[in-house]
Amino acid sequence: MLFRSDYGYIPHAEIKSITLLIENDTVVIPPAAYADLYNLNLSYKDGSGQERTSHAVYYSADGSRIYLYLLNRDQSGSYEVTWVIENKKYLRRVIDYGFTK
Known about the structure:
The chain is mostly beta strands. The protein is built from no helices and eight strands.
């Protein structure tokens, strides 16, 4: 499944790697977890023209999970992806799309 905002065009920007540093441990997100994400818009302008981002890192209440959240917004639609890290190991990603324009 290919997620990109510019349907009909060849993607020109891709994620090369995602690495998290948790305390003294390095967690590498595998390429399969982002290989279909292209041309990310890492920021947007709000109604007043201020540049903003919706990306975030969340922690579970017990601290065993970390959620790395990314929202890609553009004119044709948006998608969000959350990479789930459990006990300092990549667990899975959750992706949702087609909910805003």
